[in-house]
Amino acid sequence: QVQLQESGPGLVKPSETVSLTCTVSGYSISSGYYWGWIRQPPGKGLEWIGSMFHSGSTSYNPSLQSRVTISVDTSKNQFSLRLRSVTATDTAVYYCAREAGGSGSLDFWGQGTLVTVSS
Amino acid sequence: AIQMTQSPSSLSASVGDRVTITCRASQGIRNDLGWYQQKPGKAPKLLIYATSSLQSGVPSRFSGSGSGTDFTLTITSLQPEDFATYYCLQDYIYPRTFGPGTKVEIK
């Protein structure tokens, strides 16, 4: 069974960079699929942040593209999200997920991690 | 980017009711649409992919239909565990875009 688990700091100061890691078990990232990040501000809907193929090619939400980097570490079976210059509007639960082959649907999700931006 | 809309934004229904939620894309997306269920404090769960294919383990009372720009999620005989928020997601093109969600509440 594929499992994903997010990790990272729960609290970040404005203007800093938040780094989150998604650890995958039950499947080797280097075997394929796209791997992505989605976020959800408190009480609001879902926002797709970006995704990457195991080889390293990426796609990002244009609204965040200037501040986001997604990368992969196949040796650790992890992929990561870096979001720079954060503000209070970046406060959200951040989820990692796998994009299913073929359909592109997000078939496996992590449980999510809350990132709060506050001084 | 493709814009996704959903209607209604919320609805009240009783156990046993038939519920229909619609999703509309701002341009054609073939059948590249999925439906997700989210309960409070939990990650979203994939219910339907490619418009009408049921994800493994999802009860058959969930079904999806549509193509192009207009899509529907139907729940026949609503069960207590179905009270949740439902989102559509277009996976036709990047950037992926979600609908704003439909909250299904108990009447």
What does this structure look like?
The complex is a heterodimer of chains A (119) and B (107). With 119 residues, chain A is mainly beta. Chain A has no helices and 11 strands. In chain A, strands 2, 4, 5, 6, 9, 10 and 11 form a 7-stranded mixed beta sheet that branches. In chain A, strands 1-3-8-7 form a 4-stranded antiparallel beta sheet, with no helix packed on it. The radius of gyration of chain A is 13 Å and the shape is globular. With 107 residues, chain B is mainly beta. Chain B has no helices and 11 strands. In chain B, strands 2, 4, 5, 6, 9, 10 and 11 form a 7-stranded mixed beta sheet that branches. Chain B is globular. The mean pLDDT of chain B is 97. At the A-B interface, β5 and β10 of A face β4, β5 and β10 of B.
Keyphrases for this structure?
heterodimer, A: mainly beta, seven-stranded mixed β-sheet, B: 107 residues, mainly beta, four-stranded antiparallel β-sheet, globular
Total count of helical runs of at least 4 residues of chain B:
0
Mean pLDDT of chain B: 97
- Based on helices, strands and strand pairing, what is the structural class of chain B? mainly beta
Largest sheet of chain A: 7 strands, mixed
**Which regions of chain A have little confidence, pLDDT < 50, spanning 5+ residues?**
none
Fraction of helical residues of chain B: under 10%
* Topology pattern of chain A, helix = H, strand = E: EEEEEEEEEEE
Categorize the overall geometry of chain A: globular
Low-confidence stretches of chain B: none
The greatest inter-chain interface is formed by:
A-B, 24 and 26 residues
Reported for the largest beta sheet of chain B, the result is: 7 strands, mixed
Given helix and strand content, the structural type of chain A is mainly beta
Strand count of chain B = 11
Strand content of chain B: over 45%
Shape annotation of chain B: globular
User: What share of residues are in beta strands of chain A?
Assistant: over 45%
N-to-C CA distance of chain A: 39 Å
Through-space gap between termini of chain B: 36 Å
Tell me the quaternary state. Answer: heterodimer
